[in-house]
Design goal:
By secondary structure, the chain is mainly beta. The chain has one domain (about 5-160): Metal Binding Protein, Guanine Nucleotide Exchange Factor, Chain A. About 5% of the residues lie in helices and about 35% in strands. Bound molecules: zinc ion (ZN) (2 copies).
Length: about 160
């Protein structure tokens, strides 16, 4: 499958991705917890040219990142409130999608090879971290873009009560 669609709860906004994501970020940070209302965000990342809105026009909320001071743009349906995707001042050529808004959230690959788990340091209790995947306590890179050494577990890890 090379072409997948998704959209909001009410159906006013629809989008399409023409290719598999370049990577998938599973993010446990507080921003993603608050923005999803859940424990974490499964965020497939697409090149901007491989992603387009095909119906409606989502509203844009501009959020200033506490860490970098850069702007993050959150696109949502102003009828039903569903958040659909993100763009970034810092990474202008990519789109991050709220993965659960795809009609079939299982259409894109999610493997240890194409994904990473970040911000485990603030992950909610009871969250299960899969084995063999690169994990990080916070970001995967430093402010200057240099990589941080990942931790890889051999067995599933359950985040403990803090
Ligand atoms: Zn809607
Ligand atoms: Zn996050």
């Amino acid at each position: 499958m090379t072409n997948a669609q998704g959209g909001c709860l009410c159906g006013n906004v629809r989008y399409e991705a023409g290719k598999q994501p370049t990577r998938v970020t599973v993010c446990h940070c507080k921003f993603c917890q608050r923005a999803t209302g859940g424990a974490y965000l499964v965020e497939p990342i697409f090149n901007a040219q491989d992603f387009q809105v095909i119906k409606g026009s989502p509203k844009k909320y501009v959020h200033t990142s506490e860490g970098s001071g850069k702007e993050v743009f959150i696109y949502f349906c102003d009828t039903c409130g569903t958040k659909l995707f993100l763009t970034f001042e810092r990474f202008a050529d990519v789109v991050g999608v709220y993965g659960g808004t795809f009609d079939d959230p299982n259409w894109f690959d999610l493997t240890p090879e194409n994904s990473k788990q970040i911000f485990l340091g603030v992950a909610q209790r009871g969250t299960v971290i899969p084995p063999h995947v690169n994990t990080f306590i916070g970001h995967a890179t430093r402010e200057d873009g240099s990589p941080i050494t990942p931790t890889v577990f051999d067995t599933p890890q359950v985040i403990k009560q803090r």
